[in-house]
Predict the structure of Pyrroloquinoline quinone biosynthesis protein B.
Amino acid sequence: MKLLQTFFLSIILSSSFIAQEIELKPQFPSQQEKTTEISLVILGNVQDAGFPHIACQKDCCTALFENPDKSRKVVSLGILDPLNDKKYLFEATPDITSQLKLFKNYASENSKEVPDGIFLTHAHIGHYTGLMYFGKEAMNASNIPVYAMPKMKVFLESNGPWSQLMVNKNILIHELNHKKELVLSKDLKVIPFLVPHRDEYSETVGYKILGPNKKALFIPDIDKWEKWDTDIIKEIADVDYAFLDATFYDGAEINNRDISEIPHPFIIESMKRFSGLSSEEKNKIYFIHFNHTNPALDPESSQTKIILQKGFHIARINETFQL
Ligand SMILES: [Zn+2]
Ligand SMILES: [Zn+2]
Ligand SMILES: [Zn+2]
């Protein structure tokens, strides 16, 4: 009898210990799992300037200067192709150092930290300046393939310090073309396409990423949907996941200035545009590229709840999607 009591007691104790252990598991970074499928990993969801934002004295950032939140990284996607032991990065952000470390956790044990290719969207600071870490002062990398559109390629080739990365063969630029499919393997293809944006130094592109089973659309920066000569609703219909520019939520963030003056599609404008879609179509949409002022960055905010209630999603670091 005594033996039986001890037995049951030990079961109760061990099961409560397991429950406690599960509860204590941090959300980040323990969600990382090795995958055997071609998949897409969110490596960051914040606008170019990152989080906390330089010189910000508003509530959005003050606490974060004291207690940094390592889940707040600049927008980047990782694509894993375990079938061919390759991995690709979309965007080279100022947070690239920690993003490559995070990304490596999803790949095989012997996988190297450096990606097999980097796809750039445009020449704004959050989307390409991470390339600097491949140069002599940092990694002194060797011939990392970088995929860029023609103007972006010329910009990098003809302006220091980026040109030095080519002279020293740290990176090797491959030219992309509007709507021209690039075949990375028989199971993985990438199609860049031009979008309207503030193009001082380069074009701006979005990407369609085609896996063996599913397709993703990635448009981190774009002017208002109506300024694009392509119907975003048709583009969403053609894919399984759509990661879309969500820089600002509404006018409150910009001191109630007229939101029509700001080129990005505000989340409230996008939700209105997509309001007539079926729940299946809405379910494909993941907002990404949040300015530091955007309340949707906070998973507990009322704006986050509204977005989710309406059937859309918010892309958060470490989320993975099979392609
Ligand atoms: Zn941006
Ligand atoms: Zn801020
Ligand atoms: Zn931009």
